[in-house]
Amino acid sequence: MGSTSAEHHDAESSEGVGRRDLIKRSAALGLISVPTMSFLSACASGGGDGDNDNNSNEGKTSKSNPFGAEKGGKLDVVIFKGGYGDDYAKAWESDFQKKAGITSTHTGTQEITGKLQPRFNAGNPPDIVDDSGAQQIKIDVLYKNGQLLDLAPVLDAPSVDDPSKKVRDMIIPGTLDAGMQEGKIVALNYIYTVWGLWYSGKLFKEKGWEEPKTWADFLTVCQDAKKQGIGGLAHQGKYPYYINVAIMDLIAKTGGLDAMKAIDNLDPKAFVGSDAAQAGVEAIYEVVEKGLLMPGTNGLTHTESQTRWNQYKAAFITCGSWLENEQLKQTPADFDMKFMPMPLLPDSKLPFEAIRAGSGEPFIIPAKAKNLPGAKEFMRRMLSKEWSTLFAKEANSLTILKDGVDPGVKLRPGTQSTVEASKAAGDNTFRYLYPEWYSEMDVAIQNASNELMAKRIQPKEWLKRAQAAVDKAAKDPASKKNHRD
Is the pLDDT of residue 162 over 50? Predict the structure, then answer.
């Protein structure tokens, strides 16, 4: 989730992405895309200390082959086939075979836990995995079981594009944080993602609605929509991760970075006793109480809700920037998809332009991978301009690589609007880390939000449940090893 842990987009299969009717990409921003999602708790077992190196496939090392990946070797690649499809990975694998002489076994699937948990348990994992979607195996769980490789050697290796620099020096600052457990980077969140609200530029133009900058203006648009038989806010009810995008954005923007860090740092007043948390959850509950949700949205999956929104049955929907790609087949050609930051509650500490932004889609190398040199080299090449551009062409999204996409690649309207929003935000970005650090707490807060949206609990009870989840995570001695300053 975001991520996403996140997500996140436990997306439907999309058979590649196509390159048609794309809109001009703006200059130097290497931004955008899909979070990881964590919904299911997965249990893992098995050994490994996370630092074992498997040298059975290691050949001679050189500046252009720092890990000694051997020609004639094989790589077992598993990709979450969600909103981004898996054509981008097939393009990478083809290039890897051509240039490094290493062939791949490719698996594209949404059933990450189902297909991979038995393999991890048996000590026979793949070599590289895009561990994402609704059935992601939780990164914190894999890490605690010693099943993930520390990625420092990859990040400290020479960059493909400029061997005088390390790979980590070519990455957008702050984007590695989401893959950190206890100070080690054990997952590479590859796609730059923003989260917030989305609307149709066409619908807004037809109705004469302006993009709302305040929560009061947001409610006014929702009320006008309702009068015209259109839902105000849609959300992906069966997966409350998505409504938490709105709740958590409102908390961070109202209370500032301190309110966000209090949650990540498991503060005893993260929720109960936090004015920002109370304001954020009450604002969302007002939408429910006033009947401004799209009818039926609480019972829908992500794609069902998003498709109704594409049919102009709601003014707004909450999501991350994988939305456009996930909905390619359902989006009318003239829909004019737009991203916007969460509107502001009174006395907010962050400006309207502030957005939740960071990296999603965690790629991991299992500690017991059979071809560790090949897996490390594959990941090093993922962070080259050539492979970053291949990704953008196939998946209409940008990566964590600085200026990582050839300027000739054009992006679709929604993705283009996220690039512009990222530019407008500048340094006013924020990103929660609790979904990656404490997946059980994340799920508990999602469950509380599910009850809230169905009016089975009130905001006060939501705050109590969210705080109980924080307090439970804080009791785990391991939690002392994660901290945000």
Answer: yes
pLDDT in tens, 417-443: 998 998 899 889 999 999 999 999 999
Tell me the residue type at 149. Answer: L
- For the entire predicted model, the pTM comes to 0.81
- What is the CB neighbour count within 10 angstroms for residue 267? 18
Compute the distance between CA of residue 261 and CA of residue 484 in angstroms, rounded to an integer. Answer: 6
pLDDT one-digit tens code per residue, 55-102 = 455 678 998 999 999 999 999 999 999 888 899 999 999 999 999 999
Range with lowest mean pLDDT among 2-16, 208-222, 325-339, 388-402: 2-16
Contact 179, 171 (CB under 8 A): no
> Band of the pLDDT at 473, cuts 50, 70, 90?
very high
Nearest to 421 by CA among 362, 348, 342, 359: 342
- Do the beta carbons of residue 380 and residue 396 sit within 8 Å? no
Distance CA 379, CA 90 (A): 14
Q: How far apart are CA 140 and CA 463, in angstroms?
A: 24
What span, in angstroms and rounded, lies between the C-alpha atoms of 183 and 315? 41
Burial code of 312-348, b = ≥16 C-beta within 10 A, e = fewer? bbbbbbbbbbbbbbbbbeebeeebbbbbbbbbbbeeb
**Could you tell me the two tokens for 148?**
């993930």
Q: What is the rounded distance in angstroms from the CA atom of residue 438 to the CA atom of residue 83?
A: 25
Cα–Cα separations (whole angstroms), residue 323 to 6, 18, 292, 294, 306? 13, 16, 22, 18, 8
Distances (CA, A) of 283 to 96, 197, 253, 288: 50, 15, 13, 9
74 or 30, greater pLDDT = 74
Write the single-letter amino acid at 30.
G
- Residue 45 confidence (pLDDT) above 50: no
Phi, psi of 254 (to 5 degrees): -75, -50
Sign of the CA dihedral with 120 first, then 126, 127, and 131 last: negative
What average pLDDT does range 33-44 have in this prediction?
Answer: 32
Helices (H), 426-481: 434-437, 439-453, 459-475
Better pLDDT: 422 or 312: 312
CA 266 to chain centre: 22
- Structural contact between residues 340 and 199, judged by C-beta atoms closer than 8 angstroms: yes
Tell me the average pLDDT across 228-250.
Answer: 97
Between CA 280 and CA 208 the distance in angstroms is: 27
Whether the CB-CB separation of 207 and 46 falls below 8 Å is answered with: no
